[in-house]
């Protein structure tokens, strides 16, 4: 932004541009939009930002974001506490909840093991998962990390820690996406789908 | 966002979703991103929002946003105050400044006349432009509104008000964009380019 733009606008645009997926052009557009918002709307937005940092913390049990002590999912007695689905981020929980078929609980790792990205197991919520399994109510842990090098490595690492505790450890099935044309499926997925084929 | 998401996150996502071009999916992603920001970064962001509303007002002369009494452009004695380029929004100024060839001043209308959108001349900074021209230093007014029905109508309306004041009123040239293939130019633009052809 050239120096003829009012400083508070430039500062706000720079703040928007720090957000993921927002470039300087969009950031400027958003900053200009804020000038058209009412004072109370801007105050609400500003408060909402602060509130997220002040009132959000991790659920004692599943490490998901919550504003209570335990999250609504862990406090829900209709959920099956014997199955725990291990995911990378809180956002992943929304994907499983939307699908609607899973009635167990979750555990959020808040990342994946990545030696290149300097993320080690101790940076993730792995010890919290082990304690949870050691407490005895968990019968099955589903490793639901991405089908990537980091996702697979993290799943294998955690599975090796969990198995000695006598808990069943499973991994999401990987194969051809439902409703897709085989013509357009990549080689690795085809091989995975062949390898994991089921009897009909 | 289903009700298992922490309320402050939902509230912040809703705030992001009010911004132009940001849907609920992106808004949720941004809200989650805020949880990963440092307290001081969030505070800075929050302050920047408030600052824009508190410290930005319209330049006394050109009606552009500024945090001073007059904007840096109007205060710059190297600019030619005899030519005023009339634009719809403050963002339009950036486009002309980037091109670098214009050394006059600007006047921001903050909208276009639109009977359907219930925007009337009195809702725009038209009277401020008339006063500016009446003050006597302005020799030429360039109407630089969009080449749309509203843009043209606004240009014609203002031109009719300005001409009796003895000032030269011009309109941006419309024609084939520089560097484009005639094959891909639309009919209206071709007709405009023919109509406004220049002798070589």
Which range does the strand content of chain A fall in?
5-15%
Greatest interface by residues involved:
A-B, 58 and 58 residues
Number of strand elements of chain A: 6
Number of helices of chain A: 8
Rg over alpha carbons of chain A: 22 Å
Could you spell the SSE succession of chain A in H and E letters?
A: HHHEEHEHEHEHEH
**What strand line-up does the widest sheet of chain A have?**
4-3-5-6
Oligomer: homodimer
Mean pLDDT of chain A: 90
Description:
The structure is a homodimer of 200-residue chains. With 200 residues, chain A is α/β, with parallel strands linked by helices. Helix content of chain A is 44%, strand content 12%. Chain A contains 8 helices and 6 strands, in the order H-H-H-E-E-H-E-H-E-H-E-H-E-H. A 4-stranded parallel beta sheet of chain A has the order 4-3-5-6. In chain A, strands 1-2 form a two-stranded antiparallel ribbon. In chain A, strand 1 (57-58) and strand 2 form a beta hairpin. In chain A, helix 1 (7-17) crosses helix 2 (24-36). The longest helix of chain A is centred in the first third of the chain and has 17 residues, at 39-55. Chain A is globular and about 70 Å long. At the A-B interface, helix 1, helix 2, helix 3, strand 2 and helix 5 of A face helix 1, helix 2, helix 3, strand 2 and helix 5 of B.
How would you summarize the topology of this molecule?
Two copies of one chain form a homodimer.
Chain A: H1 7-17, H2 24-36, H3 39-55, E1 57-58, E2 65-66, H4 72-75, E3 80-87, H5 90-99, E4 104-108, H6 126-134, E5 140-143, H7 149-162, E6 168-171, H8 187-195
Parallel strand pairs in A: 3-4, 3-5, 5-6
Antiparallel strand pairs in A: 1-2
Helix pairs in contact in A: 1-2
